[in-house]
Amino acid sequence: MKILAFAGSNSKNSINKELLNYTLGKLENVEIDLVDINDFEMPIYSIDRQIENGFPELAVDFHKKVEAADGLIISLAEHNGNFSVALKNILDWVSRIDMAFLKEKKLLLLSTSPGSYGGGNVMEVATKYFGMFASGEIIASSTFPFFNDNFKNGEITNEELKNTIAEKIEIFQNSFVIA
Fold it and tell me: 10, 62, 80, 161: which has the fewest C-beta neighbours closer than 10 Å?
């Protein structure tokens, strides 16, 4: 099983990258393609740019990474209740290559924030976007509140949250097991 994983943040000190790395460390028997969305910085999408210049090579490269994966794990940063602009731009370009670019892809969606809602707003947006618009199969999702209080030195310190994340990882991994 091959998993494409990325945090939806372009911050060097992203707490979503920390949560993602923790999660990836708990997976078993998988090939992981961990990417940094900073490596896919492109011009802001517009239909005019697409018509005049075609698709940026980086958009094509990202689309190929999605195609090569069996599933995706995405830890979403919340910017004003939505995706970060960096991630949204990548999604805009890739969705123009193939509107249903996540068809037959299984997803584990995570979000975290320093506050009590744990990125709940972006999770609501992501559930609609990835599940309906991009045609992915969301196997599991979880928000992670009060990141700075519940995550220290690369580990989840809150047992309830630790168990929740472990459960979501197990559900995701088991979804690839053929009965």
Answer: 80
User: In sequence order, what are the residues at sequence separation of 6 or more whose Cβ sits closer than 8 angstroms to the Cβ of residue 124?
Assistant: none
**Whether the Cβ atoms of residue 63 and residue 101 lie closer than 8 Å to each other:** yes
Domain with residue 86: its CATH number is 3.40.50.360
> d(Cα 160, Cα 113) in Å, to the nearest integer?
17
Among 100, 90, 106, 165, CA closest to 133? 100
At residue 81, the 3 state secondary structure works out as coil
pTM of the model: 0.96
* Structural domain boundaries enclosing 158: 2-174
How crowded is residue 153: how many other Cβ atoms within 10 Å of its Cβ?
5
Query: Does 39 map to a domain?
Result: yes
Query: CA angle 174-31-143, nearest 5°?
Result: 55
3-class DSSP state for residue 75? Answer: strand
Q: CA–CA separation, 46 vs 77, rounded Å?
A: 23
